[in-house]
Every structure is written in structure tokens, then in C-alpha cells.
Design goal:
Strand 6 and strand 7 (120-121) form a beta hairpin. The chain has helices at residues 2-30, 82-93, 122-128, 144-156, 171-178; strands at residues 34-45, 48-52, 58-63, 66-67, 97-105, 111-117, 120-121, 133-134. It is an alpha+beta fold.
């Protein structure tokens, strides 16, 4: 009888441990690594900016959950709407003090973040304006559903990149095709 009780307790303990691991994994998807305040100093393209913290730390920030058309880089041509996306992002955040909600660090050592201008989610605004697509391959909750919905609406309304119809090429496909 004692062995059955011990076995039952071990099973219950294991079940509780698994549940806690699932809860922690889910919470880590929603919680940013860190949130900092910074001033945007340069817009590299439609999904990458440079910023400086009040302490003088320089940051390179990739906007989380979006992929904007590529701009020309040296001899490599840009995509249609690449400059438009960069210019739109410039109009939103250039020289603005923003909240940078760091979600990840990418392989190029950039902060991958949601940029907040007051209560405005700049990343989501880029998608809503048709200046970037929702990067579904990397989107997690709580951002996945609103970003995909914003893309669907921008596409339906034929905004920005979506005016190209069937000629539209995803930035990720463009990068693979040109080898960058």
C-alpha cells in the first residue's frame, strides 16, 4: 500500500512540475527581457533603428514581429517600398524618446524590440500602414493576433506594399534571392 501512495505522490509531483514549466515558458513569451528608454538617432531601414539611452549607451534595434522591404545597400538593389518604409518609420520616431521593450537578441547582436512612442506600438503601426509585413515566423503572443489582423486589414485596403498585388515579394524571399 505504501508503494502505491509514494508512486501516486511522485506522479502528482511530476504533474505539478510540468505544469509549472509550461506556465513559466508561457510567461517568458509574454514578458520582455528588459524595457528601457532611448532616443532614436538613426533609421537604418523600415525595421531597424539606432538609439541612445540617457546614459549614452548606443543600441541597434530590430523591430520585433515585422519585416519591411529592403533598402538599397551598396551595389545590392532595394525592393519597391523599401525607401517608403524607411521614410515612414523616420516620420514616426526620428529623434523621439521611446520605450524599447526588448524581446530578444538576434544573431547580429541587435536588440529585437517593440518600440513604443507614448502608448503607440510603432511596430504595429508599420504593419497597419502597409509599410511592413507581419513576420509570422517569429511572432508570439500577445502580439501575434493583432499583427496578423493588422496585416490582413492593410492587405484588404491595398495599403503600401500591398498595392503590388501578385508582384509583391516578401523581404525574406528577396534576401534569399539576392544572397544577402
Amino acid at each position: 500500500m505504501k508503494k502505491v501512495a509514494v508512486s501516486h505522490h511522485k506522479s502528482l509531483l511530476l504533474l505539478i512540475l510540468v505544469a509549472l514549466l509550461i506556465i513559466c515558458a508561457t510567461a517568458s513569451q509574454a514578458a520582455p527581457i528588459r524595457t528601457i528608454t532611448a532616443t532614436i538617432t538613426k533609421i537604418t531601414d523600415g525595421d531597424t533603428v539606432q538609439a541612445v539611452t540617457p546614459e549614452g549607451t548606443k543600441l541597434k534595434v530590430r523591430l520585433y514581429g515585422i519585416d519591411a522591404p529592403e533598402t538599397a545597400k551598396g551595389k545590392i538593389p532595394g525592393e519597391p517600398f523599401g525607401n517608403d518604409a524607411r521614410d515612414y518609420l523616420t516620420s514616426l520616431v526620428s529623434h523621439q524618446t521611446v520605450r524599447v521593450e526588448i524581446r530578444d537578441i538576434d544573431r547580429y547582436r541587435r536588440m529585437v524590440a517593440i518600440i513604443w512612442l507614448n502608448e503607440r506600438n510603432v511596430n504595429l503601426e508599420m504593419v497597419s500602414a502597409g509599410m511592413a509585413e507581419a513576420y509570422g515566423e517569429y511572432l508570439k503572443q500577445p502580439y501575434r493576433a493583432p499583427f496578423l489582423q493588422a496585416e490582413k486589414e492593410a492587405k484588404t485596403q491595398g495599403k503600401g506594399i500591398w498595392t503590388q498585388g501578385d508582384r509583391y515579394e516578401r523581404p525574406s524571399q528577396f534576401r534569399r534571392r539576392i544572397g544577402s
